[in-house]
Amino acid sequence: MSEPAKTLEGWFCLHDFRTINWAEWRKLDSEEREQIMGEFLNLLENWNETQTKFEGSHALYSIVGQKADFMIMLLRPTMDELNELENAFNKTRFAEYTIPAYSYVSVVELSNYLPADKDPNEDPEIQARLKPILPKWQYVCFYPMDKRRDGNDNWYMLPMEERRTLMRSHGMIGRQYAGKVRQIISGSVGFDDWEWGVTLFAHDVLQFKKLVYEMRFDEVSARYGEFGSFFVGTLLEEDKVKSFLHI
Ligand code: 76R
């Protein structure tokens, strides 16, 4: 048996994608819509407080294309809290006007492919990567992925040393995008249908295409990467929620 990579886990993560039932939303009078938006904005305000205390983080993005209308990304120290927040959102009146489109459950993950000589429990940089405050950058890209297990192309049969070499090359490509793309890798083996969730943030949406395309030529992705659906979206700050929902 090959040696498994050792992983460090941080905050648990829920990506919740919703479509808005615009036809029903439109039927409400504007006063009711205002009330419902107010309730939703209060919920966001509570999440902001949690974020200020570094007890979790969240991001709200408007999704482009028909797969969903918006995405809520939530990070919390426990899976239980994610479940509570999901239920709390589902009980809001606003949720009645949304239709679940997709969701993804995972936990922020770092692996030991690149050697680190620091104690992960003490090192502030590692801790900040395990418990990230989500950057409120203009664009988000999310997709789930697997490492292939198919005949001779089986990632999980490769010796640790070989995987380490391959991951080094992967990391080198990634590093060229420092400051342009921020990535959060979350592990989902045992939690959801794919092995990882990939969440990318950028100021310039084209950088997603450039990074993902460049990685396709790197062996880790070219030979071993398998991908689910891609979602791309734009930041929905609180002050834009009202205009987003305005009819
Ligand atoms: O954590 C680190 O920065 C160390 C190097 C590194 C690891 C271990 C790294 C760097 N990644 C790692 C692990 Mn990554 N990453 C992806 C995708 O679309 C594709 O082809 C793949 C999706 C992107 C775009 C990306 C970006 N990475 C992983 C893992 C876990 C693998 C495992 O354990 O087997 C996956 C699934 C994955 C996928 N990677 C980087 C990036 C970028 C931008 C970097 C540089 C980060 C930086 O230096 O700040």
Automatic annotation (TrEMBL):
Keywords: Heme, Heme biosynthesis, Iron, Metal-binding, Oxidoreductase, Peroxidase. Pathway: Porphyrin-containing compound metabolism; protoheme biosynthesis. The active site is at residue 143. It catalyses: Fe-coproporphyrin III + 2 H2O2 + 2 H(+) = heme b + 2 CO2 + 4 H2O; Fe-coproporphyrin III + H2O2 + H(+) = harderoheme III + CO2 + 2 H2O; harderoheme III + H2O2 + H(+) = heme b + CO2 + 2 H2O. GO terms for molecular function: peroxidase activity. Fe-coproporphyrin III binds at residues 129, 143-147, 170, 183, 221. Pfam families: Chlor_dismutase. Coiled coil: none annotated. Its cofactor is Fe-coproporphyrin III. Signal peptide: none annotated. Belongs to the ChdC family. Type 1 subfamily. NCBIfam families: PRK12276.1 (NF008913). This is Coproheme decarboxylase. The gene is chdC.
